[in-house]
Amino acid sequence: MATYTETLDYLYALKNRGSKYGIERMRLLVEALGHPERQFPVIHVAGTNGKGSVCAMLEALYRDNGYKTGFFSSPHLVHLGERAQVDRRILTETEIIHYTEQLKPIAAELGQDDPDLHPTFFEFVTGMAFLRFASDEVDIGIIETGLGGRLDASNVVEPELSIITTISLDHTEMLGGTLAAIAGEKAGIIKPGKPVLMGKLPPEAKSVVRQVAEERGCQLHVLVD
Questions:
Q1: Entry pTM
Q2: 161-164 and 42-46 as β-strands: parallel, antiparallel, unpaired?
Q3: Per-residue pLDDT tens for 73-122?
Q4: Interacting residues of 112 by C-beta distance below 8 A, sequence separation 6+
Q5: Is 134 strand, coil or helix?
Q6: Cα–Cα distance measured from residue 218 to residue 220, given in angstroms and rounded to the nearest whole number
Q7: What residues pair up with 220 in beta bridges, in sequence order?
Q8: CA distances (Å), 222 to each of 163, 165, 211, 216, in order?
Q9: Residue 115 burial (10 A CB sphere; 0-12, 13-18, 19+)
Q10: What angle do CA 52, 55, 59 make, to 5 degrees?
Q11: Which DSSP string do the residues of 34-103 spell out, in sequence order?
Q12: Does residue 75 have a cis peptide bond before it, meaning omega lies within 30 degrees of 0?
């Protein structure tokens, strides 16, 4: 069994290889894991700002009302285990070692023929969170996107509710140089027939989210119209 230091060395070596924007690797990973992300209801939250705060408030509300909560967010502030919390209990060093040892051979197999299919650091940790939430049988998973939405690793979930908090210019090199383009990427978390909650968005972004929700047959709730 690896030590915690060896485990962190492995994980951060993945991070040092760089991020690879896209969702195909994550789809392959959750399929290989038996789709743990389908074993609990999900609220999926995207946005330029505010998504972490919204997730934290939702987690507190559900937990205070007796639900067992899973909370996935990034980045962590002090300890890697902050990224995958159950009832606000972070992953311990022992649990991080356990889930890493569980995931390593699967990740290696996925990247055996094509190294580009090996999960990135973020995808690896996302898979770790899904495994933990499924194993702990959470009542609800509050999932924060990492970057954008449409191609974010977390977007393999099928949420009961999608939330888009705010839209402004961010990561334009990957998400596009206009509010409309960025809104289209964030709106990628919207799933057919599932309700959407939209925060205060600029008109250009709001119209894109409305259009995507309408095209996918989703009921749209607007916080500020």
A1: 0.94
A2: parallel
A3: 988 889 999 999 999 999 999 999 999 999 999 999 999 989 889 999 99
A4: none
A5: helix
A6: 6
A7: 196
A8: 10, 10, 13, 16
A9: exposed
A10: 140
A11: T-GGGSS-EEEEE-SSSHHHHHHHHHHHHHHTT--EEEE-SS-SS-GGGGEEETTBPPPHHHHHHHHHHH
A12: yes
Tens of pLDDT, residues 34-45? 999 999 999 999
Reported residue count of the chain is: 225
Dig out the tokens for 153 from the structure.
């690793």
**Encoded tokens for 111:** 């990247």
Report the alpha-carbon distance of residue 173 to residue 171 in Å, rounded.
5
Distance, in Å, from the CA atom of 144 to the CA atom of 134, rounded to the nearest integer, reads 17
Angle at 14 between CA 8 and CA 20, to 5 degrees: 145
3-state secondary structure of 201: coil
CA distance 218 to 200: 18
Residue 124's closest CA among 3, 2, 15? 15
Query: Angle formed by the axes of helices 121-135 and 93-110, to 10°?
Result: 120
